[in-house]
Amino acid sequence: MKRKLTERKVEATIRDELLIKQRREEIIRAASQVFSRKGYHQTTIKDICEASGLGPGTIYNYVKKKEDILFLIYDKLATALDESLLETIKNNKGPLEQLREALKRTIDIVWDNQDLILLMYQETAALDREAMYNILHRENNYVKHMEKILEMGSEKGIIRHKDIRIAADIIVYLLSFVSLRRWNLKNRFSEKEVKTGLINFILRALGISEKAKA
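-> structure tokens emitted (214 positions)
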């Protein structure tokens, strides 16, 4: 039987939603920097306090524990990726232009959040089961939206890859390639070369002809 999703909640003692959003943004921004530099397990709440300029009493008004901060970081990134594809689907464009836009939007988010993508791969096991299930749900939605974009291209005869479902999963992984290989890439290619090369590689792998791309 399929498990029913229970939304992971991060409790706050403050009731002002605008202030919660503002303070959590500050906490996320500071924690992301410290996690990337020191690693999640070596980082303390004191480190996050120093990086954010907020006292421990203030931070504990918006999160209960360090793991809550890690979940908020993951949730923000997963939501941004998912919403970028949703926005692309809503745009009334041709299938190839829509696919290009989806790939560009996604790779731009990945490029701007390389440390966080790497953190996600390294520290997911630090989350509790409910948090992991929520993040997996977000990622599955993201893959499904990529799949929908590919299906629209396939229906129009632009994409000739036979297995759209596996293609969507592979593409999502390939777009993380920027973070996983960045130390090697940055010494050999410019940002433009990496982004353009990755998008063109994916388009060729999907069987999109040079005539269609023109």
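Residues 40 and 122 are 9 Å apart (CA to CA).
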